[in-house]
Every structure is written in structure tokens, then in C-alpha cells.
Amino acid sequence: MTDAPWLVVGLGNPGPEYAKHRHNVGFLVVELLARRIGATFGRSRKAVALAAEGRLGFGGPRLVLAKPLTYMNLAGGAVVGLANFYKVPIEQIVAVHDELDLPYATLRLKRGGGEGGHNGLRSMSKSLGSRDYVRVRFGIGRPPGRQDPADFVLSNFSGAENKELDFLVDRAADAVEAVVVGGLEPAQNTYHAS
């Protein structure tokens, strides 16, 4: 076990106009994790990102939480900058992102695999030179009717979805903690069963 921290990257777009969009659910999850560990986001000097540092519980694993300040399709550069500075191995990088191919309220965890057309993941994989990081996939569902998926991800959650959103963000944050503390497979067993 390395003493390097875990780098948990919430994928999203910077700026208040994007804050409530489906595409920014990764930001919501890392913001909650920061509150849980009593950390505050500040501008990183090592990457174009906001970063927060702390420990998960007393004497627990170190976490670096990140919100890239680039737009989604350029997030990889910020991730590499932080990973290099903190000497985080690829297996201790976690990307939290929205997932069109999962129904709303579905949470899935995996290591590696394709990007499924997700520009943030594509940028991360290209910049890291690897796909072998952990993904916490937050299902947002497919767009209704003929709505363009690009427009759908850049729109706010519906009123019905918003009623469940806090609970789901909380559950996704729990899943990240489970991966960090106990490993991917036990976390999958817990969060894929429900």
C-alpha cells in the first residue's frame, strides 16, 4: 500500500451557469466529500483546478479532491498536473462523472474500460496515457424524445430528479469512500446490489 493520497476528480464545467447541470454531478460529489473531511477548495498552484486536501477519518487515507477549471474536454491536463505533483499512482485516481448509459439514480463503479463518448473521460485517458483509473458512474439516463444528448447533459435536473439528487450525491460520495477504504470489488458488491 502506497502512502500516496487518493486523487478524486469530479468532472464538470466551471462557472455558476453550469453548476446545476447534469454534466456537473461530479463536482457535487467532490464538494460533499470536501465538507465531510472538513476541507476547503482553493486554487491549485500545480494545475488548472480547485483542490482540497484532507484525511478520511482520523488517521485514514489522504484525499486530494479536485474540480478541474478547464472545460470538460480539457480536464485531463489538470488531472495529470495533480497526479504528478502528489505522486498518485493510476490505480488511486477516481473519476466521478455523469453517465448517459445508466438510468437516473443508478450508480456503477469500475476500473478502466472505454469512455462512452464522455469528453472528460476521453481527456483524462489521453492525458494519463491509461484508462486504468476508477470510475464512479452516476446515471443520468438518456435524453427524452429526440433531444440532443449534448443539450441534455448541459441542462438542469428535472424537478422530480432534484427531489432525489441530494440522496444520490450522498450515496455516490459513500461509494467513493468505500473504494478508498476497502477497495473496488467490495464497493462494487455493496453499490451494485442495490
From TrEMBL:
Matches recorded under SUPFAM superfamilies: Peptidyl-tRNA hydrolase-like (SSF53178)
Subcellular location, record wording: Cytoplasm
Pfam families attached to this UniProt entry: Pept_tRNA_hydro (PF01195)
Site (Stabilizes the basic form of H active site to accept a proton): 98
PROSITE patterns membership: PEPT_TRNA_HYDROL_2
Tagged with keyword Cytoplasm: yes
Site (Discriminates between blocked and unblocked aminoacyl-tRNA): 13
Active site: 23 (proton acceptor)
Assigned GO CC terms: cytoplasm
Swiss-Prot/TrEMBL catalytic activity: an N-acyl-L-alpha-aminoacyl-tRNA + H2O = an N-acyl-L-amino acid + a tRNA + H(+)
Alphabetical UniProt keywords: Cytoplasm, Hydrolase, RNA-binding, tRNA-binding
A molecular-function term among this protein's GO annotations: peptidyl-tRNA hydrolase activity
Keyword Hydrolase: yes
Gene Ontology BP terms: protein quality control for misfolded or incompletely synthesized proteins; rescue of stalled ribosome
Residues the record lists as binding tRNA: 18, 71, 73, 119
Oligomer and partners: Monomer.
Role according to the record: Hydrolyzes ribosome-free peptidyl-tRNAs (with 1 or more amino acids incorporated), which drop off the ribosome during protein synthesis, or as a result of ribosome stalling. Catalyzes the release of premature peptidyl moieties from peptidyl-tRNA molecules trapped in stalled 50S ribosomal subunits, and thus maintains levels of free tRNAs and 50S ribosomes.
PANTHER family assigned to the protein according to its UniProt record, in alphabetical order: PEPTIDYL-TRNA HYDROLASE
Family: Belongs to the PTH family.
This protein's name: Peptidyl-tRNA hydrolase
Source organism of this protein record: Virgisporangium ochraceum
Gene that encodes the chain: pth
